[in-house]
């Protein structure tokens, strides 16, 4: 049993398998890595352990007798105390394993991976390795962040602790920088770095989201203005909350900011998720249409992750489509993901929309997407999100590279 009050930095792993031999093998690997394995031979035993403690990793065999691993994944998602990583282990066919991982992603467990049986111990060790340092401090961090209130965020805004970081967007065929996405960051003097998954809901609940968004817009437009003399087609993208899509005064406020800073409307892209856009179609259509009439671009973010993607695409005045990273990151190894990505590119082009792929993490994915006809990419292959000065430094370094190294010169062909 794991003591939830224990602050020992040891890493706890819950090993769930109805085969004691397999469980012993996995537990042995954990022990050699210096972790503390906790074995559960059934769904019910695993549920009891989850009710009394928290785990940094969980390995799950999909076949668990009367219950199965899918039921356990659902239970973990409902507990709210999610591990850093879940490793699904099974002898099932590859498509079942892939679908299981996608199901886990859909219910919020984004770092779920699968390993086939018979298990490769080297692969298991690699799967258990990435979060050793983060897991050691996670319990204390989670407890500290849970104490943050909207008043703390308000003070952080007043002190200038909330700022925009910018992730580059790259033309996949030429390697040129086309713009960036502005991402809100909060470095709190009291709590340290606070993730947007924590402070964005606080901003919405505390009535601070409009203040934060207008600040992001102002900082982003000012940032774009500095690039326009050398990159006339530079576009900065800013995310828009569902709350603001019902604010019919927003288009005029954005237009005033553009005029004040001296940035053309074409240099701004507003990103909204399909779920946000479809929450109140009438008001959203009002705001989005007026933004488009002013020459501002509208991007459909996280395409494919909701329930009404095609309906939103057909009804809303989008000019850009962003393919969610959950489809992009595995598209070269998962045939189903590749089909979704290639279909998304084709559909967007039929609507005369630019296509952006999020989550490009290697050159092979870059080349494959370029060969597919995807227009723009962003991801760690190019750069993480950077503060303004760091972005400028990165930009000069990127542009100083020979053009051939900034373009997908040897496309990787892939059958759909």
Describe this structure in words.
- This protein is α/β, with parallel strands linked by helices and 416 residues long.
- It has 2 domains: 128 residues, Response regulator (Rossmann fold, 3-Layer(aba) Sandwich), CATH 3.40.50.2300; 260 residues, Alpha-Beta Barrel (TIM Barrel).
- Helices cover 45% and strands 20% of the residues.
- The strands form 3 sheets. Strands 8-9-11-12-13-14-15-16 form an 8-stranded mixed beta barrel, surrounded by 5 helices.
- Strand 1, helix 1 and strand 2 form a beta-alpha-beta unit.
- Helix 9 runs parallel beside helix 10.
- The radius of gyration is 23 Å and the shape is globular.
Structural key phrases:
alpha/beta, Rossmann fold, TIM Barrel, 8-stranded mixed β-barrel, 17 helices, 16 strands, globular
